[in-house]
Each structure stands twice: as C-alpha cells, then as structure tokens.
Amino acid sequence: MYLGVRAVVAKSIERIHKANLINFCIVPIEFADPADYDKIKPGDRLQIDELFCAIKSSKEVRIINKTGSFEFVGGLILSDRDRKILLSAGLLNYTRNKENE
Hints:
Elements: E1 7-10, H1 15-23, E2 27-31, E3 46-48, H2 51-57, E4 60-65, E5 70-75, H3 80-87, H4 91-100
Parallel strand pairs: 1-2
Antiparallel strand pairs: 2-5, 3-4, 4-5
C-alpha cells in the first residue's frame, strides 16, 4: 500500500490514473450513483467489506460511511489483467510471479 491508501473512490477515473493506481495496488472505485459523492464529507471514514472477494469476481463493492451512517455502491471497472495485478499486490509482484512460472 502506498502511504496507507487502499482505494480511491471517485465520480470517474481517467485511464492512465486508473492504471497507475492498479500498478501500486490501490483499488480504483467509481460511484455507481454520482449523487452519492455529495453525501460524503471531508474526514468521513469509509469501510469497504470483502474487497478481496469483490476484486476476484464482482463488478460492484458495498461501501459503508461509518461517520455518516449510510451505505452506497461503488463500481469496479477492471479487466482480468487488472484483477490479477491487484490480487498480486501490484504490478511488481505480478511481473515477478509471471517470471517465476
């Protein structure tokens, strides 16, 4: 994890930024409903349950705002390769594992 960041939740994520996040094992998540963005305040604590399972097989992840006491859905728009890189803990590990196969 880079500086403790595990995921980025945004209205949209540009392709190159998304690739950079994935390479550093930071999960890019987009709001399923962009209106949920306005419900989050600076300093709110967000909890993402079962993120590992969602990366493996899902297109959505449930996010709980522990401060504001509400839930919302985030979208995981990931290719198979993106999923493999995230599950390998980043591009460096993914590349190392492929070389050892």
